[in-house]
UniProtKB/TrEMBL annotation:
SUPFAM superfamilies: Carbon-nitrogen hydrolase
Protein name from the UniProt record: Carbon-nitrogen family hydrolase
UniProt-listed Pfam families: CN_hydrolase (PF00795)
Protein's UniProt keywords contain Hydrolase: yes
Keyword tRNA-binding: no
Keywords: Hydrolase
UniProt source species: Pontibacillus salicampi
C-alpha cells in the first residue's frame, strides 16, 4: 500500500483557492504514479480562520465532499481528505472525510476534542460520536484530528475495533513539535499499528506549524518524515505483515486486564 501525504500550506479562508492547490498538486505528484492513498491535513480548505468560519466554511459538507469524490475518481486513489469546516444547521463541525478510489464517501468523523488553547469551543461544535473504523482495500483503518492525538482512549478504541492503520490530520504548532512526534510514536507502539499524519506547514495568525508529517510503523520507527517548513510530498509503503507480527510477538491486546481498569 503506497501512501502519499500532501504537507500543504493553506490559503486562509479561501476554499476555492485551496481546492485549486490540491488539484494542481495531484496533477503534478499523483497522476500516473503508483499511489494508493493520498492524505491531506486538518482544516485545509480554510485554515483556522475561526471568527469568519461561518461565512467561509462549506455547508452540509459541500463543495468539498464533491471535490474529493471528483479527484478520487479522476486519479484512481483513495482520498483521506484531511478535515474541513462545515456548517450544519446552527453548528460548525471540523469534519474528516474519507473517499475511496471509486469516488464513494466511506467515512466521515467530526472532531470530538475541541482545543481550549485555540478557543475552538467558541466557534465549533464537538462531534457527537467517537471515531469508528472504515475499510480501504479490505484493511481496517481509523482517523483522528490533531488534538485527538492527546487522548489515547480514542486510538485504543480504534485498535480494539480492528484498525491496523490510523491517520492523524493536523495543524500542529511548531512550539509543541516534540509532543507531536512522541505521541504519534507512542500511539503506534502501544496499539501496534501504522500511524500516518498530514500536518500543515507555514504560518497563520502568529502561529508557525510543525510540518513533520510522519509515517510511523508499529515498532515506532519512522518510515518517512517531512521537513518542518516546506510544502512537500511524503511517501512510504505500508507492510501490514508488520502489524500482524508485532501483535503476535508482543500480545498486549491479550494481556489487557480489563476488569481492573477504571472507566474514568
Ligand atoms: O494539542 C496541540 O498541541 C495542538 C492541537 C491543535 O492545534 C488542533 O487540534 O488543531
Amino acid at each position: 500500500m503506497q501512501i502519499a501525504i500532501y504537507q500543504m500550506d493553506i490559503v486562509p479562508g479561501d476554499v476555492k483557492a485551496n481546492h485549486e492547490r490540491v488539484s494542481a498538486w495531484m496533477d503534478e505528484n499523483v497522476k500516473g504514479k503508483d499511489v494508493d492513498i493520498v492524505v491531506l491535513p486538518e482544516m485545509w480548505t480554510t485554515a483556522y480562520t475561526l471568527p469568519e468560519l461561518k461565512d467561509v466554511a462549506d455547508v452540509n459538507g459541500e463543495p468539498t465532499t464533491s471535490f474529493l469524490q471528483h479527484i478520487a475518481k479522476k486519479y484512481g486513489v483513495h482520498m483521506v481528505g484531511g478535515s474541513f469546516a462545515t456548517v450544519v444547521g446552527e453548528d460548525v463541525f471540523n469534519r474528516a472525510c474519507v473517499v475511496n478510489n471509486q469516488g464513494e464517501v466511506v467515512y466521515t468523523y467530526d472532531k470530538i476534542h475541541l482545543v481550549p488553547m485555540l478557543d475552538e469551543p467558541s466557534y465549533l461544535t464537538g462531534g457527537r460520536e467517537a471515531g469508528q473504523t472504515f475499510e480501504l482495500d479490505g484493511v481496517k483503518m481509523g482517523i483522528i484530528i490533531c488534538y485527538d492525538l492527546r487522548f489515547p482512549e480514542l486510538a485504543r478504541q480504534l485498535a480494539l475495533e480492528g484498525a491496523e492503520v490510523m491517520f492523524v490530520v493536523a495543524e500542529w504548532p511548531l512550539a509543541r513539535r516534540n509532543h507531536w512526534m512522541a505521541l504519534q510514536r507512542a500511539r503506534a507502539i502501544e496499539n501496534q499499528m501504522y500511524v500516518i499524519s498530514s500536518d500543515r506547514c507555514g504560518s497563520y495568525d502568529g502561529t508557525t506549524f510543525s510540518g513533520t508529517s510522519l509515517i510511523v510503523d508499529p515498532n515506532g520507527e519512522l518510515v518517512a518524515e517531512g521537513s518542518i517548513e516546506q510544502e512537500e510530498m511524503i511517501t512510504g509503503t505500508l507492510d501490514l505483515e508488520e502489524v500482524h507480527k508485532w501483535r503476535k510477538n508482543v500480545p498486549v491486546f491479550d494481556s489487557r486486564v480489563k476488569h481492573l481498569y477504571k472507566d474514568l
